[in-house]
Amino acid sequence: MDIWNQKNLGHQWKTLALGKQQAMLSKISKFVSKKNKSKIVCLTAYSKNIVEELDKFTDLILVGDSLGSVLYNYKSTRNVTLDTMIEHSKSVRLGIKKSLMIVDMPYNTYRNKKQALRNCKKVIKETKCDGVKLEGGEKIKNIVNHLTSNKIPVMGHIGILPQLVRGKFKSKGKSEKEKKQLMKDAKTLECVGSFAIVLECIEKNLSKQITKEIQIPTIGIGSSSYCDGQILVTDDILGLTNSKIKFVKKYINLKNFIKKAAKKFRLEVLRKKYPTKKYSY
Length: 281
Description:
Blueprint: H1 20-32, E1 40-44, H2 48-54, E2 60-63, H3 67-70, H4 82-95, E3 100-104, H5 113-127, E4 131-133, H6 141-149, E5 154-159, H7 176-191, E6 196-200, H8 204-213, E7 218-221, E8 229-232, H9 234-237, H10 254-270
Parallel strand pairs: 1-2, 1-8, 2-3, 3-4, 4-5, 5-6, 6-7, 7-8
């Protein structure tokens, strides 16, 4: 049974119009239906060339505001602007054929219902993404409810909230107070219509419990294998960053290949071996 048709979710998806919105709903419904059936694979992307390769292996691509630190060397994602997110998302959209495309709403772009709806509509219209991601739980329930009621697909994000963190990241869900609040956050986000929730650095047993008790997918980042899916920053798994965060696993050191290519190009230029007739007009 498609869990999107179950009455107890309490969201507004049945009101979605036909056409593009109906197609968007169908795509999201298919994504949600993966819960309890198969693990969900998610990665970040900021450009067309990279995402063209990722899209062959992913279920969801997130244009994350992590691009602030990854590409622009910002100390915080707070410095990322809406315009920056939109421009990178336009590039990513060109390279996606099958994956769900979600865009992070930057810091201070969803402070109230009116602002959130205006900015989310702008992002979806200009980037043609499938939905947006907002950080926060119970505190932003009215904003999320307003968005989903207005046909905006929302992905939640609880645990560590990078837009609000100052200093070192500390895992969440170890104290009884945190456990209760995080569980409440997850259930609240589900109730107001979120189609999935990112769990960032949440204690493994709590991640397991949340995943079991809600009917929408949980996507873990540093929150154990109990989540319905996983997401990492692509530049981290390619070895392009110097991240020392515990949950980051480098699957290849792409820097070595870049060095080899650049070194070889330099030598051929210096030795006048490039360009040859083959590469000249």
